[in-house]
Amino acid sequence: MQFSGRRRKVITSPQVELYGQALQFYGQPPLENMSLSEFESFAVDRLKLLKTIENLGVSYVKLSDDYKRKLDNESRNLNFPYRPDAVPDDRKSQVGPSEYEKRRKDHISHFILRLAYCQTEDLRRWFIQQEVDLFRYRFNGLQPKQKVEFLHKNNLQYDTISVEEKKTLQDKLVNSSHNVSGITVEDQDFYKVPFQDALDLVRTRKVYLKAGYVYIPHQDIVAIVLNDFRTRLSKALALTARSLPAVHSDERLQPLLNHLSHAYVGQDYSIQKNVGKISLEQIDSLSVKSFPLCMRQLHQALRDSHHLRHGGRMQYGLFLKGIGLSLEQALQFWRSEFIRGKVDADKFDKAYAYGIRHMFGKEGKRADYTPYSCMKVILSNLPSQGDHHGCPFRHSDPELLKQKLQFYKVSPSGISQILELVKGMHYQLACQKYFELTHSIEEASFSLNHPNQYFIESQRVLGGGKDIKREVGTPQRSQENSAARGSTADREAAAAANAAKDLPEMTEDLDSFFQDA
Amino acid sequence: MPSSGYDAACLPDLLPLYYRRLFPFAQYHRWLNYGGVQKNYFQNREFSFTLKDDIYVRYQSFSTQTELEKEMLKMNPYKIDVGAIYSHRPNQHNTVKSGTFQALEKELVFDIDMTDYDDVRSCCSAAEICSKCWTLMTIAVHILDRALRDDFGFQHLLWVYSGRRGVHCWVCDEAARKLSVAARSAVAEYLSLVKGGDETVKKVVLTDPLHPFIRESLAVVERYFPQYALHEQEILSRKESVDKVLALVPEDILFLFQCCIYEGNKACSRAVGNSKGQHFEKEIMLQYCYPRLDVNVSKGVNHLLKSPFSVHPKTGRISVPMDLEELDTFDPLAVPTIRSATVLNARVSEDVKEKENEKDAAERRKIRDYKRTSLAKYVKYFDQFLDGLALSWKGELLKKSDLEKDF
């Protein structure tokens, strides 16, 4: 080490080079020793960050100003890097960890969570989704020059097309995407990329596709980068899964990793409590009183047409399992309903009983399927002609939704509040509002993310069990409280406060665990 | 639609005849073996059979064409489905360490089912089809075939009549077989324009600019729309169907129409035509005619789909490949059934042997009938398809042998 008077000397060490870039593909795992407590706190912090990303992604349009602002805040609070132009060895009067330390934390925590989230398809899918969203937000924050630098450093070489070809394809290129104008075509390079490397653009038809290649202007290369990131991470997780036995043999790590992977979903309602406590006769009245709208709709459709298609059977069947129906009850329930329709007992036993047993883990690979969370219902398996599954707040025409709510005797002012939330794409908040209106309470004490959670909370309210807690929140929140009752910001704060409450509790548990050890 | 008095009770007797004499095993194996370029491609392919009394068996696999023939003759399947190529022989999957038995490759497939159009066809519903609504399948094949070739660059597409109420497409290019789940789902979504279930009234929404894919698809729909929708389906003839159409028209346009009727003002219709971003006429045509595909069928690498040349047990019709040159005259109700194929074949092959040089017009007509309604022409078309596919193998095999010589 060299000292030269007062002038700050730039000391280059291998570590600085390692974290020289703000953004990375996480290609190389960290190679250093660290304490268990740092290991644990890094992991928990990243988990909080990813959970925030998940929640923000449902409530806001990704990369909108609100979204970025909130994510900036969260990154800052958790000591993760959020300013891409900070220099790694900048140690000038900074409060808290340096940029270098933040990047190191980012690097290490990512790899720890890989260990926790590589084990099952569901965990992997969730982890990859949040990491991709995080990457997108960070890449978006880079300057154009830094973006190009990133591309080159990571070997994404795609061919550009000639000027003549650009001219020939000009109209088609302009018509294929909103942000491509005649000027774009003239000024920018267009890259020819195999369609398999640009699936997001293909899926949403936002790009020109010819003979298996998509034509992308330089400005849009981010989608490609994201896809590449996703693919690399997916492969890496598969590899990580294979080396898990070695990791699990370290007794210090196994409990922590298990705890981490269960934390993300909170409760997944896969372990059936109260099996058999619900009788089939109760279901009709329960569907009106305590089912979320999606399940009420499915139940109604089932009663009306004595049939549900596969998507509906899965969504509703697993929900019923989650509220405590036993396999025998489920079989009886579906059978008696289907028989009223066009299906005779024989056909039911042959064609449908298998599927129900499958849901309960009694067939095939004997996986015990978990009831769908709101996220899953909203995002996957779009309903099509003849289907009744999905989230009504997301998938129904607003007009039809309105009629349905009127039919279910929701007040006109309540209906317009719900429709406002739907317009803003806050589907879970809309459902929560539906809960509040149908249970005649001012404010739900929970943040809705699972249909079975809706059911349990509803039963709690109706059974007069636990008190409905008023939200004890941050000062910021109580200001908004007095300013605008029932505004969306209110809900956000409540939701965020709720989410934030869970994780500190979890960390406390982890702390005490380690103290015992 | 009664298919000439078909009764599933005939299957136990006719299926053995069909499998012994008509099922084109040689071509079938030639297809699924893909030139032997990849080791164990045929051996690791999953088949599933549905036997008499709805007994369903999965994870069937065969080492050779002969073994496939033997087993099919023995088991006499009512339905045959083709699945993926796995990492190990499917019939040994229980011996493989859990987690390592995986589906690796499969053709990219599409399934267009007429029941998905029930809300827009008035002539039939559910499992019925007729010549009037079959046009929907014609339109679907034209649109998807063009898109898969021109947009995605695929070359080896096998279109097959499902035997009852729809069509399947098997994209057999190597690149297609190697596609991931995410890629398959992306392709299917690119091709999807009609979205929403029973709860959605307006299922097609277009915004500016119109993507070239939409323009191309519209061009196909517009070719068929007047004859199909206005003439055959008569969507503007009865009040209830008119109402259904009007439900898809935006309110402000309807208001303008009413003005026009009152004022008789020609300027109105021009105004309507120029309304910015209003594509309701195109949206209506697409909602009535654009192909509706089930994304879930195309997504899964391990998805099992009805095999070409298998029999549809509910109709007795054979799943035959469709020659796209004759697409517009394809008649699903003239597709050979297991009865017509086996019986006709039995009768004629005897006659043919006896009267090979018969110049009698009646006999010639009989032989011509045989050729027209029998399986022969479909097998011939399948051969042509395989010839095209084989060209792609030749390149691969040469490459492989070159590499081997280097060592």
Automatic annotation (TrEMBL), chain A:
Binds 1 [4Fe-4S] cluster. Residues 86-100 have a biased composition (Basic and acidic residues). Keywords: 4Fe-4S, DNA replication, DNA-binding, Iron, Iron-sulfur, Metal-binding, Primosome. One of its GO terms (molecular function) is 4 iron, 4 sulfur cluster binding. [4Fe-4S] cluster binds at C294, C374, C391, C431. InterPro entries: DNA_primase_C (IPR058560), DNA_primase_lsu_euk (IPR016558), DNA_primase_lsu_euk/arc (IPR007238). Residues 285-455 form the DNA primase large subunit C-terminal domain. Residues 79-100, 468-517 are annotated as: Disordered. Its cofactor is [4Fe-4S] cluster. GO terms for cellular component: alpha DNA polymerase:primase complex. GO terms for biological process: DNA replication initiation; DNA replication, synthesis of primer. Heterodimer of a catalytic subunit PRIM1 and a regulatory subunit PRIM2, also known as the DNA primase complex. Interacts via (C-terminus) with PRIM1. Component of the alpha DNA polymerase complex (also known as the alpha DNA polymerase-primase complex) consisting of four subunits: the catalytic subunit POLA1, the regulatory subunit POLA2, and the primase complex subunits PRIM1 and PRIM2 respectively. Within the complex, POLA1 directly interacts with PRIM2. Regulatory subunit of the DNA primase complex and component of the DNA polymerase alpha complex (also known as the alpha DNA polymerase-primase complex) which play an essential role in the initiation of DNA synthesis. The primase subunit of the polymerase alpha complex initiates DNA synthesis by oligomerising short RNA primers on both leading and lagging strands. Belongs to the eukaryotic-type primase large subunit family. This is DNA primase large subunit. It comes from Scophthalmus maximus (Turbot).
Automatic annotation (TrEMBL), chain B:
It comes from the Eukaryota. Signal peptide: none annotated. GO terms for cellular component: alpha DNA polymerase:primase complex. Its cofactor is Mg(2+); Mn(2+). InterPro entries: DNA_primase_S, DNA_primase_ssu_euk/arc. It catalyses: ssDNA + n NTP = ssDNA/pppN(pN)n-1 hybrid + (n-1) diphosphate. It holds the Pfam family DNA_primase_S. Its EC number is 2.7.7.-. GO terms for molecular function: DNA-directed RNA polymerase activity; metal ion binding. Keywords: DNA replication, DNA-directed RNA polymerase, Metal-binding, Nucleotidyltransferase, Primosome, Transcription, Transferase, Zinc. CDD domains: AE_Prim_S. GO terms for biological process: DNA replication initiation; DNA replication, synthesis of primer. Belongs to the eukaryotic-type primase small subunit family. PANTHER family: DNA PRIMASE SMALL SUBUNIT. This is DNA primase. It comes from Scophthalmus maximus.
